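Sample intake sheet
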Amino acid sequence: MPTDAERSASLPLSPGLAREVVAAAAAAPSIHNTQPWLWRLEADGLTLLADSSRQLDIADPEGRQLLLSCGAALCNALLALRVRGLEPAVELLPDGDDFRSKPLATVTVVGQRPADDTERALVEAIPRRHTDRRPFAERPLSDEAVARLREAAEAHGAWLTAPTDPDLRVQVSVLLSRADWIEVHNDDYRKELASWSRTAPAADGIPRSAVVHSDAPRQSEFPMRDLDVVGQAGTLLQEHDVERPGILLIGTEADTTADRLRAGEAMQRVLLTATALNLATSPMSQAIDVEGMREQFRAATGGLGHVQMILRAGYLASGTEPLDPTPRRRVDDVLDVAGSDERT
């Protein structure tokens, strides 16, 4: 939280710099590519707000995924400032935790400091990070990679564990399978998913390039969310061996609105770190998104805390072509400049 002295000494952000920062923030991931964030440039810095019109009523009734998405955008924004040698100060929920009507965070620039090598590597990873639902190579995550990912989560006050115990992996698989079955047989969920599925170019939603389809049931230790509800999938899988990817659990000790925002920051730093390590990732969050299953998941995993995200992680097979970037809304659509009648 910035002090009064830091606020009074804050450096102004120009509209041009604010656009660059928000463009980086907009590259953050969000459930169904809903991009549920808005930014406002004011005299003393940037304010992050939730775009509640983009909350998923069925898949995310509490707005937990919305908060993780906005936290991920905040992480990118802070890194974009740091790589420019600026020192940001952040205050989460400055007007209280009613995230649907109050600011999620304020960001002010309180000084200057050169970026370090880690920050530069994370910023370089922002445009390269993509959700990748394709099969991974049979290569386990190294202890060094897991340590780097854990350090990334801890930088934002979260924790990360990468279960290798067979019994725990079976429990995770069972809960994911149960949640997947519930979603597949929920007509309202599938209608909502279809409403965010795109068959033509669009600035948001799930493009066909992000959808993976297999004519036969996909053989994986952990079920993948089925996004193939309209149109043609971007990737058609051939027969392949059973997938046994690495899994990452990211969580927090408490489960307040601020904790969920921090979890989003941690998730994004983990994803960027993974990208820098040439790891591919995709979310498997249905076991903690489906109503009533989060507590079951917490109990099954030995009360680790509040799991906020489950990620699948691994290495792509040699020669795998990179994915096309997922589209994003224009900066003009998500950034307001205080005192202006128009968006920048």
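Comment: The chain has two domains: 4-129, 143-314. The chain has a mean pLDDT of 90.
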